[in-house]
Amino acid sequence: MKHLNFKTVTASAFAFALTAGGGLAADITMNVGFGAPEESLYGRFGKIFEAKAEEYTNGAVDVKLRCCNQISSEDEGFKAMQLGTVDGFFITANNVSPHWPLMDVTVLPYIFQNADHLARVLDGEVGQQMKDKLQADTSVHLLAFGPAMYRDFYNSVRPVNTMADMDGLKIRVPKNEVMIATFEAFGANPVPLAWSETPTALQTGTVDGGDNGTSFIRDMKFYEFEPHLVILEHFVSFAPLFASDAFMKKLSDEQREQIMRAAKDAGAEFAVELATETQEVRDWLASEGGMAMTTPDKTDFVEAAKGVQEDFAQQRGEDFVELVKAIQDAAN
Hints:
Elements: E1 28-33, H1 41-56, E2 61-66, H2 74-83, E3 88-90, H3 115-122, H4 125-138, E4 141-144, E5 148-155, E6 170-173, H5 177-185, E7 189-192, H6 198-204, E8 209-213, H7 214-219, E9 228-230, E10 236-238, E11 241-243, H8 245-248, H9 253-274, H10 277-286, E12 292-294, H11 299-316, H12 318-329
Parallel strand pairs: 1-2, 1-3, 6-7, 9-12
Antiparallel strand pairs: 3-11, 4-11, 5-8, 5-9, 5-10
Helix pairs in contact: 1-9, 5-11, 11-12
C-alpha cells in the first residue's frame, strides 16, 4: 500500500500530578456527550466504553455519559473539544468534515466495497494515519472510529425502485458538501439541516425524507411518519469517539493508553453486537414498523457516485486524492 504523504505527528507529552506518597491524585471525570437518546447506538457504545475505561484505569477515570445535547450539540461538539470546554463527544463522521475536511473521504458514496474492505481501512495503516493527521491539524484525538453501519434512505412520498424515483424529493441531509452533492447526483433536492432540526422537519413535512443508520430510524420512531424504506447502502455511517487535548493532557502516559485501548476495545465489542442487527432492524421496520421496503438496483446510483468521488478528489487537493487512492488500494 502506498504510504500517505502526511506530516509526521509528534506525540504530545502528558503530565499527571502525583500525591506526596506517590499515588495518583483525585479521580478524573470524563464527560462524554452525544446528541441522540440514551438508548441509541451512541449511548450503547458509550456504556461499553464507560465500563472498559473505568476497568482499565482501575477507577482513576470516571466516565459520565451525557446524552441528548446536554453539554453540546453534535454540530458544535468538535469546536468545543478544540476549545477544551468538552472532554469527549460522539460525532457522526460526516459532521466532522466542516472542522477537518479530510474526513469526507469516509463520506464519499460507495467508497467502501464491503465490510472487509472497510475493516482493512479503519483498523489498518490508513486509519491510523487519519487519526494522527486529524490530531496534528485540529488537536482533537480520534479515540475510535466505532462500529460502521450503512445509512438507509426513507421518505414519505413514494417507493423508490429506480434512481428516477428520486427525482424532486426534498431530502434532509447533514450540512456536508459530499452528502449534498450525492443526493443532487441522485436527482433529489437536498435540504441541509442540523440534526437537532431534523425530527421536526420530517414530522411536519418540511422535507420528504432523509437517511440514517438503520437503528436510528427505529430509535427516533421515524417509521411513524415515513412509510417508505429504501435500501441503497450509499453511505457508511460511523460513530467515532473523540476526546479533547485538554482532557488527554490530564492523564498520565499509562492512563492515556488505557483510555485509547478502552475506546478501541469498546468499538470492537459493539461491532460484534451490531453484526446481525442491521437486517433485524430492517425486518422490524418492514413488519412491526409498517414501512414498505424496496431494494433498488444500485447500478445507476453507483455510476452517479463515481462522478461525486472524482469531483471531490479534484477539488480537495493532494492529501485528499492520496487518501482516496489508499482506501481504494486497500480493497485489493
